[in-house]
Each structure stands twice: as structure tokens, then as C-alpha cells.
């Protein structure tokens, strides 16, 4: 689907800051292009699917493992205080989850937490600096390379 932003970025990973972080058989992890700060990543399906309920059991199982891996990677690399997980879908109807590492610095900057923090970030319209985002992407990619057992597709069982 040419009109879908998620599909466009899947087909052109160079358009995403730092390029692709990792991928499994059915899913892609890349830096978020929206106003959700440095280190916020998106986990999305490789093919155009509009609802999680339309994913196969194999796809969902792989997602669960990948979601845990992304949490582990963020905890080790970015040491956030919290990790927010969101899915909306109005603007980009392609299954994609936002995984957002939250630090005290971000909370202080916006004087909020939870959905209000996200709302303030969106209202700010601040797009993450591509260079800073690319540095974080590099570190997260390295984490996945050094922790191959966390690639859900590599798990035999
Ligand atoms: Zn799509």
C-alpha cells in the first residue's frame, strides 16, 4: 500500500533515523519518526495488516517475544524509568506499537507523565534529532546483535 506510511518506511528503511534496528520473520523494529522523543521505537508488521486480531497465532507469538526483547534492550541501553507501550491506528492503520522509554529528564521537561506526557510531546511537534536518534538506533542494533537468543525467530521452540 503506497499510501500507508508504515509500508512506505518498510520499503525504504533509509527514511528512518539510523535505519532498521532489527527484524524477525513477521516484524520490524525501527526508530519512531513522530514526536515521542529519542529512543522511542515502533514495532510493526512487515506486511500491511490493519488489526492485531487479523494476525496469525505465529505472528502474535513472535510479537510477544519481540516486545520483551525490545524492553530488555531499552532497559540495558537507555535505562529508562518507565517504558510506555501504545497503539492508536487512526492516522496509520497498519499494526504498529509505539514503545517509548521515559526518563526523569523527559518528565521534567514536559511536567507530565502517562497519556498527558504523550499529549504534550505531540503538541510540541518536536521531531527527534536524526543524529541523536541514529546513535541510539546503533546501540539498540548492537544489543540485538550481541543477544541473538532474543530474536524470537531464532527460537526453535
Ligand atoms: Zn501498511
Which short descriptors sum up this protein?
alpha+beta, 40% helix, 157 residues, five-stranded antiparallel sheet, HIT family, subunit A, binds zinc ion, single chain
Ends distance: 33 Å
Classified by CATH, the class is Alpha Beta
- Provide the residue-averaged pLDDT: 93
Rough outline? globular
Q: In percent, how helical is the residue content?
A: 40-55%
| Main sheet: strand order | 1-2-3-5-4
CATH architectural grouping: 2-Layer Sandwich
What is the domain total for the residues? 1
Quaternary class: single chain
Helix-and-strand structural type: alpha+beta
Number of strands: 5
Q: Name the ligand types.
A: zinc ion
Q: List the uncertain runs.
A: none
Q: What's the gyration radius in Å?
A: 15 Å
Q: What is the CATH fold-level name?
A: HIT family, subunit A
- Helix and strand run: HEEEHEEHHH
Biggest sheet architecture: 5 strands, antiparallel
Tally of separate helices: 5
Q: What would you give as the CATH superfamily?
A: HIT-like
Write a concise synopsis of the structure shown.
By secondary structure, the chain is of the alpha+beta class. The protein has 5 helices and 5 strands, in the order αβββαββααα. It has a 5-stranded antiparallel sheet.
Could you outline the blueprint of secondary structure elements for this entry?
Layout: H1 5-11, E1 20-23, E2 27-31, E3 41-45, H2 57-77, E4 82-86, E5 96-102, H3 104-110, H4 114-124, H5 130-146
Antiparallel strand pairs: 1-2, 2-3, 3-5, 4-5
Helix pairs in contact: 2-5
Bound molecules: zinc ion (ZN).
